[in-house]
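Need tokens for this chain, all 167 residues.
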Amino acid sequence: MPTIRQVESEQDIAHVRELFWEYLQWANGRLIEEFGVDFDIASMLEEDMAKLEIYAPPYGRILLAIEGSEVAGLACMRRIREDIGEIKRMYVRPSFRGRGLGRALLESLMREARIIGYPRIRLDSTRFMKEAHALYRSAGFEEIDEYPESEIPEQFRAHWIFMEKRL
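Here are the structure tokens for all 167 residues:
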């Protein structure tokens, strides 16, 4: 059974950086393959790391999934409105997929969102992430129109979906 816990130390932040890098490399590769578009991975990583505080308590979270002694994945949540949280950068390393870690991270984030007091939680996802969409739908997420707080650049929006769940 995985352990899901909040980021607590500088070592944890190093794991976050590593997982963000892996996620961005994977996502960029798939964007090129599926849609012929890409982004600057190094710049996006630096932007993400520079704004980690948006995921800090009391209104945000960064959760790590630990399997044995290995960091297997992460998921982040930030506040986008007083009454809405947003899930970002949910990622499970390929060698750990199929073990329920994505579901464990998602359920943990939804529990944290309720503790914070968000009645709704949103997310965005690229259209090629079919397995993730199935997970989100099974947890009660429904597709919605793009929301103003989404950080998806204009050139990528046609390749994204947006979802919401009432908690």
